[in-house]
Each structure stands twice: as C-alpha cells, then as structure tokens.
C-alpha cells in the first residue's frame, strides 16, 4: 500500500505539472500536486521502522502553519523572495538528511555513499545560494559583490569541498572534521557563487537553485530508498533545469555567463547622452488622449507595475480603451519581473483574460502596427541596445520591439536605470514620452482623463 501510495503521488505530481503549463488549468495543477504531496506524506507515516511521530507531527504543524500564514500574507511584489526561500529550504532539508545518514555511516554500497555526499553538496549550495538571492531581492544587501580574483577563490573553495567529499567517500569514517569541513565549505560556496550575480539575473538564479534542490532531494531519496522523494525530486529537477535553459535562451546568454560574468553588477556605465537624446515628458491628459483615439495599444508590464500594485488600475484603464474601440494587448517577456511568470500571475490576479496576454514571439511582429506601446515599469526587456550595441552587456538578448511602435509612453517613477543598472536607449528616442509617477496613481489619472473624453 505504501508503494502504491507513492505511485499515486507520482502520477499526481506529473499530472499537476502538466496542468501548470497552461494558465487556464494552472490552479488545478497546483491542487493536484499538493494532493500528491499529502498522499506521499501520509504514506510515510506507515513506513517500516518509522518512529518519533510526535516530532514529525510537530514539524508538519510548524512548517505547514508558517507556510499557510506567509502564503496568505505575502505581497505579490515579494513573491520572488518567498519562492527563493522555499527553494532554499528544500535544498537545506536534503542537506540535513545527508548529514544524518553520513553520521550513521550505514550504507549498503559505495554508490549510496556517493549519492549522499553529492546530495549534501548540491542541497547545501542551493540552500545558502537561495538565502543570498532572497537577501538581494529583499534589498537587505547589494545586488552584487565583486572583488579581484573572486572567481579563482570560488574555484579554490569548490575544489576544497570536493576534496573533503572524496575523503568522506573513500576515508575510514563519514563523520568528524571532514564532515564538518565539507558542509561548511559547501555552504560557503553557495554564498560565494551567488554574491557576484547581478540583480537582472535573479530569475535565472532562482530557477537554477530550484533545479538543484530537486536533484538533491532525488539523490537523498535513493539513499533512503524513498520512491516519493526520488520521483518528486526528479520532476522538480528536470522541470527546473528546462526552465533555466529556456530563460537563459530568452536572454541569449549561456548559464555560465549568468553565473560567472557578474552581469548587472556595475550598471549605469552608459551615460544618458550616450543613449542619444533627452527624455521628453508627457502629462496624463495628453497620454490619455493619444491612447483613447488609437487603433491598437500594446502594454508592456514590468516589475515597476508589481511594486506599485498597479495591475488592477491598468486593467480598468484597458477596459475603458476597449469601450472606445481600441484594441489592447499585453506583451510579456520571458524574464520580466523577478521570477518566471511573474507578470502573468499579476495580470491573472487583476482578471486580464488569457487571450489578451502574448509572449515575445507572438507579439513582436505587431509592434510596428501599434499606435502606442505603453511601458509600465519595464526596462531591460525593451532596451533597443540589445539589438544595436555590440558593447552592451545585454547585446543579443531577445527583447520586445516596443521601440518600433508609432508612439511609446513610459510610466516610470524616476529617471534612474533599471534593475540591471543599464541605461535604456528607448527612453531617449524621438517618439518616446515619459509619464513620471507611481504606476497606480498614474493609471488612476489616465482612467479619470479617459472618462472625461
């Protein structure tokens, strides 16, 4: 019955993940996968040799209660931080299992010992790296931390970690100082690997650590002989790996460049005058008139919209435009926001129909026919230097072709650069106008202005 329960849980995991591939069924997919985890957890209570039920139930109550509370209270702008934290917790749990099993030292074969050490290494890196990602997203530390010879030092720490891992595998004992040194170095490597990564790469980093967490859980599942952990970890690891590859492709950068280039660490080096021109302002009244009498308006949301919690007002404004016969569409870049799918979630929360939301490949050809491209809090994903300037750090990255619209209106709180720190040449083009202010307040003004037309 236990094995049958684990099989049922695995089926629910896979079907849940499949349903998450479409916004229309994603909510059901999450429920299905959650039901699978519940089945697997309950089945584990009947596993032969299981004990300490009181501690297990207490841990479930504490962890489940904390997750329920934070899940209810977390703001949409803080969702990436929560995802990073939960990813890290999964890796930390896998590392903790490795510690316990290595202290026991009871392995049926050398291969299980290798898996325990490998899972401990990967889980520790995912845990500490995710905590640094959380701190960066939360604004508790600099977006990046660079110093000369940093990558060489990281390599030394990684090699030292592998050396102590080999000592655990081939030595006479799996405990003592080698065990302590191995996990301290593994945690340190996760921190040091994440420190130089710039803020613009956080979505990819979160996805990567999610994949590592899944891999670590699968490894420890083999060590414990737990089929549910093996399957769940493999599903998470493979899905996370695929997502990481897709996001890196969307940025036209290899994973190695994301991890070791320090991109976004020293932005702002492109001066405003190098972008060509000056920023030209527009007031809400003129912007409302321009869009109300347009034929097609394409809206490009970014993290600024999330910070301002402006998605509801933006959708209300869009419905007003549609009442006047304007065609309105939303354009989503794969790495917009701070985590994969961030903008899609925000728009779904506001009630925007799925058929009005388009990916980069679907919408780019329509920008030349759009009367207005309205940018709300987006920056790097609409920066034309990605196509024109070979010296730019984002050169070659696929972008939304907002600059090809007949008119561009940018809602922005200030004149600063985006999360990566790179100056946006779009803001200085002749047909671009800047509408400064908080996204929600500006959207409210646009609504009032359109009502008066």
Q: What is the subunit arrangement here?
A: single chain
Tally of individual helices: 18
User: Which residues form runs of ≥5 with pLDDT under 50?
Assistant: 264-275
| Percent of residues in beta strands | 5-15%
Given helix and strand content, the structural type is alpha/beta
- Spatial strand order of the main sheet: 3-2-1-4-5-6
Largest sheet: 6 strands, parallel
Classify the helix fraction into a percent range: 55-70%
- Determine Rg (CA atoms, Å): 24 Å
- Tertiary shape: globular
* Count of DSSP strands: 6
Task: Calculate the mean pLDDT score and round it.
Answer: 87
Number of domains: 2
Order of helices and strands: HHHHHHHHHHHHEHHEHEHEHEEH
* Distance N to C terminus: 68 Å
Describe the structure.
This protein is of the alpha/beta class. It has two domains: 74-260, no CATH class; 272-451, 3-Layer(aba) Sandwich (Rossmann fold). The chain has helices spanning 2-19, 26-44, 53-73, 79-104, 110-137, 150-170, 176-194, 202-224, 227-250, 255-260, 272-275, 284-292, 303-308, 311-323, 342-350, 360-363, 385-388, 439-451, and strands spanning 296-301, 327-332, 357-359, 372-376, 407-412, 432-436. The protein has a six-stranded parallel beta sheet. Strand 2, helix 15 and strand 3 form a beta-alpha-beta unit. The radius of gyration is 24 Å and the shape is globular. It starts with a helix and ends with a helix. Residues 264-275 have low confidence and may be disordered.
């Amino acid at each position: 019955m236990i094995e049958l329960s684990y099989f049922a849980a695995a089926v629910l995991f896979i079907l849940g993940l499949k349903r998450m591939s479409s916004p229309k069924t994603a909510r059901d997919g999450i429920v299905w996968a959650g039901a699978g985890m519940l089945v697997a957890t309950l089945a584990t209570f009947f596993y032969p040799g299981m004990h300490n039920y009181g501690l297990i139930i207490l841990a479930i109550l504490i962890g489940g209660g904390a997750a329920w509370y934070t899940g209810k209270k977390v703001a949409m702008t803080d969702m990436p931080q929560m995802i990073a934290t939960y990813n890290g917790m999964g890796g930390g749990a896998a590392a903790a299992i490795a510690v316990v099993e290595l202290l026991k030292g009871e392995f049926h074969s050398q291969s299980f010992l290798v898996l325990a050490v490998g899972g401990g290494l990967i889980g520790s890196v995912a845990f500490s790296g995710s905590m640094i990602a959380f701190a960066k997203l939360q604004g508790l530390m600099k977006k990046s931390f660079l110093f000369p010879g940093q990558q060489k030092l990281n390599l030394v720490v990684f090699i030292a970690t592998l050396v102590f891992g080999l000592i655990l595998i081939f030595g006479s004992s799996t405990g003592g100082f080698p065990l302590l040194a191995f996990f301290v170095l593994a945690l340190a490597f996760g921190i040091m690997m994440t420190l130089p990564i710039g803020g613009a790469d956080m979505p990819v980093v979160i996805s990567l650590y999610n994949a590592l967490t899944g891999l670590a859980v699968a490894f420890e599942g083999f060590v414990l002989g737990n089929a549910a952990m093996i399957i769940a970890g493999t599903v998470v690891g493979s899905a996370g790996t695929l997502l990481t590859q897709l996001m890196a492709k969307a940025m036209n950068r290899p994973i190695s460049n994301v991890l070791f280039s320090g991109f976004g660490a020293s932005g702002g080096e492109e001066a405003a005058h190098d972008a060509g021109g000056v920023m030209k302002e527009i007031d809400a009244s003129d912007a409302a008139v321009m869009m109300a009498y347009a034929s097609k308006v394409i809206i490009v949301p970014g993290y600024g919209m999330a910070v301002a919690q402006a998605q509801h007002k933006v959708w209300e404004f869009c419905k007003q435009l549609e009442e006047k016969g304007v065609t309105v569409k939303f354009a989503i870049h794969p790495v917009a926001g701070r985590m994969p799918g961030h903008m899609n979630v925000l728009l779904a929360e506001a009630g925007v129909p799925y058929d009005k939301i388009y990916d980069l490949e679907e919408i780019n050809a329509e920008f030349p026919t759009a009367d207005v491209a309205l940018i709300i809090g987006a920056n790097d994903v609409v920066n034309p230097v990605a196509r024109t300037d070979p010296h730019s750090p984002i050169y070659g990255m696929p972008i939304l072709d907002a600059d090809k619209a007949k008119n561009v209106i940018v809602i922005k709180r200030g004149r600063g650069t985006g999360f990566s720190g790179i100056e946006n040449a779009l803001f200085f083009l002749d047909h671009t106008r800047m509408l400064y202010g908080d996204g929600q307040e500006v959207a409210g003004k646009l609504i009032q202005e359109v009502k008066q037309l």
